[in-house]
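Homework help board

Subject: predicted structure for assignment chain

Our instructor gave us this sequence and asked us to write out the predicted structure in token form, then describe one feature. I got the tokens but I'm not sure how to describe them. Can anyone check?
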Amino acid sequence: MTITIEQLQLDELKAFLRVQADDAFPGLKDQNRLNVLAEKWHKYAEFCTCRDEGGQLVGMIAFYANQPLGGVIYIPHVYVSKNYRGKGAFTYMFVQIKQYATNKGFSLIRLEVQKDNIKAQRSYLNNGFQIDRGASKKTIYMQCKI
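My token output:
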């Protein structure tokens, strides 16, 4: 696995989101919604990616890092392909993001996760996140201090 922070090409991002729509993000089956989200992330977000030995994108964390010097990095989306789950891909990507955050002077990383996504919550807790508070009836906020 190769882990790096990079700017994804819009076409690669859209293709990756299409593939994961069935598994992790059913709302992306609507092509218009997928295109709007991909274009927003492409324009404003940064990405920590996980690629297999052939360079194929198999995981990514999209994150907003717009306010350094004590600010907050916000993660709107995490996805790791089924074949790479449980093999440390998220942890490796998150270590890169924490290093980035430290180098840029950020103090906190936040994300929102579905209340029923226990596997993701467990992974976040194992990587230093704590439950912050409820965000809605279906989601919670989690945060990790840098």
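Reply (TA_rk): Your tokens look well-formed. For the description, you could write something like this. The radius of gyration is 15 Å. That's the kind of observation they're looking for.
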